[in-house]
UniProtKB/TrEMBL annotation, chain A:
Its EC number is 3.6.3.-. The keyword Cytoplasm does not apply. Pfam families: ABC_tran (PF00005), TOBE_2 (PF08402). This is Multiple sugar transport system ATP-binding protein. The keyword RNA-binding does not apply. It comes from Kaistia dalseonensis. Belongs to the ABC transporter superfamily. Residues 4-234 form the ABC transporter domain. InterPro entries: AAA+_ATPase (IPR003593), ABC_transporter-like_ATP-bd (IPR003439), ABC_transporter-like_CS (IPR017871), ABC_transpr_MalK-like (IPR015855), ABC_transpr_MalK/UgpC-like (IPR047641), Mo/tungstate-bd_C_term_dom (IPR008995), NA-bd_OB-fold (IPR012340), P-loop_NTPase (IPR027417).
Length: 375, 294
């Protein structure tokens, strides 16, 4: 049980800065997920917390204690690797108990501890097997068992499910959530799969180019992303964007964009010039031509059974995705259609990609807060 | 009609029987090629075996079947000098292999895994050393051996062979350690292992195949070496096998003991063949299977 604090942590290799001044507070017992595109430094940040690589500058503290120069094995952390990293020449039992063996604990004590952990993870019938004789899911359980047996203060997961097929991934995701609910240990989890992030996390940390883009609960990130980057990263299918130009100098400005988009909105912080708008696929409804905010050519409809994705090409050749819950509008395929959405569901981003609050967006934000309060 | 014309022009498919025929022809050629290579590789050794069992004038008849006369072998094993050289060779080859594996492995771990600024320089230096031809270092080495007081002792050969074997064992093992899954080592670090414990408990058990293959190479190299062995050893009692065979004399100065030399060659090659046959399974088996995703 411990909190984790990062104070302006940086890591660079030569002149190549991988992590650029990260500040983060993780509360005791919290489940925090690092997400970001590949190469954003999320795995590096996790290894800095673990102590597997030394920080270039900054402070790492666990449970309020500065551990910046403490070796990995003395930080009270456990690490579950993407490749599982089981020792191939040892049995499952020795794999799980190896850390205790290194500590010099007696054989019998190790055996009972290993047995307890194995039973908890339902791998107690596999204790004499070698890793290569196990399935992917079983290897994953053994890897978690190896972490669990050390009774760590902080669990670190580095994309632990990315090697599993999608069914098993879903199953293990539920089990990891259950594990966290059962033992209540602080967990930091790295993934590029935003579904894992949304379902597992108490708070999500979105990283981009070695910087924290935004920290917040899954709902905060979904409903009130700070930037266009976060808005595009959280949500599947991703948010639709279109460039717009802003005119007017007063409180209320006029926005116009491709597909006949035009709206008057009141917001501050952005003068006339280039900006962009975004709308989530699930907030759009398909209407007849000439109706709605935008118009485009309905090119393709994907029928997934329980939901449907319609792809509309706008005048500027960008393609917007619409999530259709009910019956797929097959008869409209190949025709011009209108895309309708509430003004409250419209996101506006300034030229640098920062989100601008407009007078309608407060409605959405307060609805989100209401939903969260009920959780 | 047009349809047929297009099809025959683009696909030109022959009958199934003709494809079968050409496949057999290809297989036949492949078999022939394998046979040629095998004969080329194995015939010299076979000829040595045949010659070693022939007496006197029989040598000059082109008989391909061994005569199965083991007189030379018997006289060879009654020859104390030859037996002594076998013992010397075994001592030299085994100690050279063991020492170079120990040195090579520890050096390779440092060079492959631990970051230190001079690493590139050290690696290049090791590569440079293994490039020098033996003749270049011979005279300098002679001085060194004299200075160490090892002249005319088999241990002089161990010292000099290390010059050749340590660089290449280090080089090969470094490559292997670099390819070793990084996460496996990180897992061991998290589990509280020191560098030494990682080396002994994680790397060593998994490096069996590469240790076996580099070990065999080092063994063969030191078993077969001639130049240093000839230069640094004076008396018959301390010679190693290649030199002993080279200096094998006949009963009179006009006799060239061809049969005996052949018998000796066959005898000293046998240990190498047995070694390779024992270890080839270990070399082939992939021990790291199952460590990571698979």
């Amino acid at each position: 049980m411990a909190s984790v604090t990062l104070k302006s942590v940086s890591k660079s290799y030569g002149t190549n800065a991988v992590i650029r001044g990260v500040d983060l507070d993780i509360k005791d017992g919290e489940f925090v997920v690092f997400v970001g595109p590949s190469g954003c430094g999320k795995s590096t940040l996790l290894r800095l917390v673990a102590g597997l690589i030394p920080v270039s500058s900054g402070v790492v503290a666990i449970d309020g204690e500065d551990v910046t120069d403490v070796p990995a094995s003395k930080r009270g952390i456990a690490f579950v690797f993407q490749s599982y990293a089981l020792y191939p020449h040892m049995s499952v039992a020795r794999n799980i108990g190896f850390a205790l063996e290194t500590l010099g604990i007696g054989r019998d004590a190790i055996r009972t501890k290993v047995r307890d952990v194995a039973k908890m993870l339902k791998v107690d019938h596999l204790l004499d097997r070698r890793p290569r004789e196990l399935s992917g899911g079983q290897r994953q359980r053994v890897a978690i068992g190896r972490a669990l047996v050390r009774k760590p203060d902080v669990f670190l997961f580095d994309e632990p499910l990315s090697n599993l097929d999608s069914d098993l991934r879903m199953e293990m995701r539920v089990e990891i959530a259950k594990l966290h609910a059962d033992i209540g240990t602080t967990m930091i989890y790295v993934t590029h799969d935003q579904a894992e992030a949304m379902t597992l996390a108490d708070r999500i940390v979105v990283l981009n180019h070695g910087l924290i883009e935004q920290v917040g609960t899954p709902q905060e990130l979904y409903h009130t992303p700070d930037s266009r980057f976060v808005a595009g990263f959280i949500g599947s299918p991703r948010m639709n964007f279109a460039p717009v130009s802003v005119e007017g100098a007063g409180e209320t400005k006029h926005l116009s964009g491709p597909g006949g988009f035009a709206i008057d909105l009141a917001f501050s912080g952005q003068g006339a010039g280039a900006a962009s708008i975004g709308v989530r696929p699930e907030a759009i409804a398909i209407t007849g031509e000439g109706e709605g905010r935008l118009s485009g050519l309905l090119e393709r409809i994907e029928d997934l059974g329980h939901e449907h994705f319609a792809y509309a090409r706008l005048a500027d050749d960008s393609v917007w995705v619409v999530r259709v819950a009910g019956r797929p509008p097959l008869e409209l395929k190949g025709r011009m259609v209108g895309l309708a959405f509430r003004d409250a569901d419209l996101f506006v981003f300034d030229g640098d990609g920062r989100r601008l609050d407009h007078h309608e967006s407060h409605e959405r934000a307060s609805a989100a807060q209401f939903r969260e309060a009920r959780r | 009609m047009a349809d047929v014309a297009i099809r025959s022009a683009t696909t030109r498919r022959r009958s199934s029987a003709s494809y079968r025929f050409w496949r057999r022809v290809r297989q036949g050629f492949l078999g022939l090629a394998v046979l040629v290579v095998l004969v080329y590789v194995l015939f010299p050794y076979y000829w040595a075996i045949v010659s070693s069992t022939k007496q006197g004038a029989e040598l000059y008849q082109n008989a391909f079947v061994p005569a199965l006369n083991f007189t030379y072998y018997r006289s060879l094993f009654e020859n104390p000098v030859f037996l002594g050289s076998l013992v010397n060779s075994t001592f030299v080859a085994v100690s050279t292999t063991a020492i170079s594996l120990i040195l090579g492995l520890s050096a390779a771990y440092a060079l492959g895994r631990i970051d230190f600024p001079q690493r590139r320089f050290v690696l290049m230096a090791i590569l440079m050393i293994s490039i020098f031809p033996q003749v270049v270092v011979l005279s300098g080495m002679f001085e060194l051996i004299n200075w160490l007081g090892l002249y005319n002792r088999p241990s002089a050969l161990v010292v000099t062979y290390l010059l050749a074997t340590v660089p290449f064992t280090t080089w090969i093992l470094t490559t292997f350690i670099r390819e070793f899954p990084r996460e496996l080592e990180e897992a061991a670090i998290i589990d509280g292992c020191s560098h030494f414990r990682i080396l002994m408990k994680i790397l060593l058990p998994l490096m069996g195949p590469s240790l076996a293959s580099t070990g065999i190479l080092a063994f063969i190299l030191s078993w077969n070496e001639f130049l240093f062995a000839l230069t640094f050893i004076l008396t018959d009692a301390n010679r190693t096998v290649p030199v002993a065979i080279g200096l094998l004399g006949g009963s009179s100065r006009y006799e060239y003991p061809f049969g005996q030399i052949m018998a000796a060659s066959v005898t000293v090659t046998l240990p190498l063949i047995i070694l390779v046959l024992i270890f080839q399974r270990r070399i082939v088996s992939g021990l790291t299977a199952g460590a990571i995703k698979g």
